[in-house]
Amino acid sequence: MNRVFILVLVLVVSSCSNSGPGYEFMPNMYRSPSLETYGQNSVFSDSLNARKPVKGTIARNYLSTFYYDGTLSDYLDAGNNAINPIDNTEANINDGKKLYSMFCKHCHGEFGAGGGSITHPIYSAIPHYNEAKLLRRANLPMSELKPGHIFHAITYGLNAMGPHSSQLSEEERWKIVLYVQELQKYSAE
Amino acid sequence: MMKFFYNNTILQILVIVLISFTNIFSQDVVDSLAVQKGEQIFKTNCVSCHSIGTNSLIGPGLEGVTEKRKKDWLKKWINSSSDFIASGDADAIAIYEEYNKVAMTSFYFEDEDFEALYAYLKNPPIQVKATSADLVLASDEGVANSTKLMFIALFLLCLVYILTSLKNKLKESLDQQTETIPETLLNQFKLFISEHRNVVFVSVACIIVVLKFSYDSMLGIGVYSQYQPEQPIAFSHKVHAGENGVDCNYCHSSARNSKHSGIPSANVCMNCHTYINEGTITGTSEISKIYDAIGFDPDTRTYIEGYDQKPIKWVRIHNLPDLSYFNHSQHVVAGKVECQTCHGPIEEMDVVYQHAELTMGWCIDCHRTSEVAMEGNEYYTELHTQLKEKYKGEKITVDKIGGIECAKCHY
Questions:
Q1: CA quadruple A165, A183, A115, B111: dihedral positive or negative?
Q2: Which end of chain A is flanked by fewer CB atoms within 10 Å, N or C?
Q3: How many CB atoms lie within 10 A of CB A149?
Q4: What is the pLDDT along chain B (411 residues), one digit of tens a residue?
Q5: Quick one: which of B259, B257, B237 has its CA closest to B248?
Q6: H-helix or E-strand containing B44?
Q7: Which chain B residues are Cβ-neighbours of A92 within 8 angstroms?
Q8: What percent of the residues of chain A are helix, what percent strand, and what percent coil, each to the nearest 5?
Q9: Contact indicator for B269, B275 with CB cutoff of 8 Å
Q10: Chain B residues in contact with A37 (beta carbon < 8 A)
Q11: CB-CB: which of B205, B243, B271 is closest to A10?
Q12: What is the spatial distance between Cα B49 and Cα A159, in angstroms, rounded to a whole number?
């Protein structure tokens, strides 16, 4: 009887697992001397591998066609003058819809009428895209905001909304603008 | 006479008291109804820019605004601030200038709605501040459960061993047995076992333990599934991706167009946390670590100039050896693989652990069973029609487009 008991104990003890990252077989094959994206190095004073681009650098395919800065006057100018370089096709609107569901839906709701999954008080009074009565800062209601206004808001943020230029390329942002313009026509009724 | 007078006064007093009570009561009811309605209006129209406390968000905090401004003034401002500013009111222009000339939305509330809103602003809810004692701190339960269990087991093992040997000693001293030495080797061995049962048993047990441990650790070399390190900020994917329903791509936006599914830089955190300064689990303690890293002052909501920013040193969990190539965008965009397929139920994890083994066998298994995503992959239409002709009626899995060729991942 005792022995059976001990045997059970032995099995219990031996089935314990360890929770560290574990061992590597030949670490020098796992980690080459080249630097990993988020690693550290001893060359730069801040030791970061992830470098910021040199000021004025333009990444390939990232040449901007939107010449407005984050100020209020440029917001108004963008609304008057900026033109969406993306064609208004069904494919582009669908792309915009996909991107909208990744980047906008959790606050603005599925149809741009609020009711997203984020319920924090700050983000609970989201204006509806098809709201036609209240005049906003451009002296226009939500439903009549121009593509330039929408693009400017995505790029530089507006009120409690943050800037999203680091997450979306300009092309992607213009696609979202196309879809938001569809939602401006959309009525919940 | 006296009696009548007495009765009368009592009656009068009673009536007065009653009337005044009903007055107070009805006044209260009206007010609280208005305040409730006002709260509703405030929550649907104002909270994205104003707090009911003293802290300013986009616009100023509204605590005590009814004492600071006259009712008429507020009405004009709320209904159409731009018209009001144009009319040349000095206070209106001053507040417009103070908040960077951002015009407030014109609301044109009905009189009744404005009264309700005004009532709410006049009687704001009493703010209950959570004390640090109320905060539920994440306990370190379960961290060392397996180790604890092992110690208990070892202790019990020792106890059992001591007791059994004690019992044997007692037995020995009670009846001494004398046996003749057997002649064959096998019998000698049997006698040895029968005389030293405990010793033999313990050593066999030890051998089992050693073998089991070494077998397990050999199997585990290079396999880090369940690896769950502590991160510098107790970020909860359960709260963000689960409860708040933020898409994975929102923060890991480079998964769509890069080899790496990038770790979001702090500016992405700040898209929401400029205004959300308090978390649901840890209060301000964890969110303030972001502010600490980048130099943001949550009280004034401004970035500190000339701040020496520090990187947040997240601990990497998923790490393929350098000898194999993996590309996120290839899997996420062209392959249309859900993040959860490899990363497991991320939206349920408070602390992320590695779900998959990330061994070669695991990769190959998936490539052999997953079908190529042909829907909505126009770029590859030509290749896909060719494949459909070549493998008529068969399932076209990833291995059929070279998903198990060595040089696809090892070069």
A1: positive
A2: C
A3: 23
A4: 444 445 555 555 555 544 444 444 444 555 777 788 888 788 777 877 787 777 777 778 887 788 778 788 888 888 777 778 878 787 788 777 777 677 787 777 878 888 888 888 887 776 544 444 333 333 344 445 667 788 888 899 889 888 888 888 888 777 766 556 667 788 888 888 888 888 888 999 999 999 988 887 787 787 888 888 889 999 999 999 999 999 999 999 999 989 989 899 999 999 999 988 888 888 889 999 999 999 998 888 889 988 988 889 998 888 888 888 999 999 999 999 999 999 999 999 999 999 988 889 999 999 999 989 888 888 888 988 998 898 888 888 998 888 899 999 998
A5: B237
A6: helix B2-45
A7: none
A8: 40, 5, 55
A9: no
A10: 260, 262
A11: B205
A12: 7
Instruction: Give the minimum alpha-carbon distance from B354 to chain A in angstroms, rounded to a whole number.
Output: 10
What three-state secondary structure class fits B86? helix
Selecting from A17, A101, A136 the residue whose C-beta is nearest the C-beta of B247 gives A101
Task: Find tokens 């599925």 and name the residue.
Answer: A110
Q: Do residue B226 and residue A17 have CB atoms under 8 angstroms apart?
A: yes
- B245, B211, B409, B226: which is closest to A123 by C-alpha? B245
The topology (CATH level 3) of B28-122 is Cytochrome Bc1 Complex; Chain D, domain 2 (1.10.760)
Instruction: Find the helix or strand (DSSP H, E) in which B92 lies.
Output: helix B90-98
Which residues make beta-bridge pairs with B371? B397
Residue among A18, A120, A135 whose CB faces B106 most closely: A135
* Interatomic CA distance for residues A147 and B11, integer angstroms: 74
The pTM is what? 0.70
What's the first-to-final CA gap in chain A, in angstroms? 75
A156, A163 contact by CB (below 8 A): yes
| DSSP letter assigned to residue B285 | H
CB B286: neighbour CB atoms within 10 A? 18
Containing A96, the helix (H) or strand (E) segment is helix A90-103
The DSSP symbol for B264 reads P
Domains and CATH numbers, chain A: 72-185 (1.10.760.10)
| Domain ranges, ordered by start, for chain B | 28-122, 146-178, 183-221, 364-411
CA–CA distance, B254 with B257 (Å, rounded to integer): 5
Round to whole Å and give the CA distance between A159 and A122. 10
Which of B117, B198, B244 is best to mutate for the A interface (most A CBs within 10 A)? B244
Q: How far apart are CA B250 and CA B239, in angstroms?
A: 14
SS (H, E, C) B308-342: CCCCCCCCCCCCCCCCCCCCHHHHHHHCCCCHHHH
A165 → chain B, closest CA residue = B268
Q: Are B400 and B372 in contact (CB under 8 A)?
A: yes
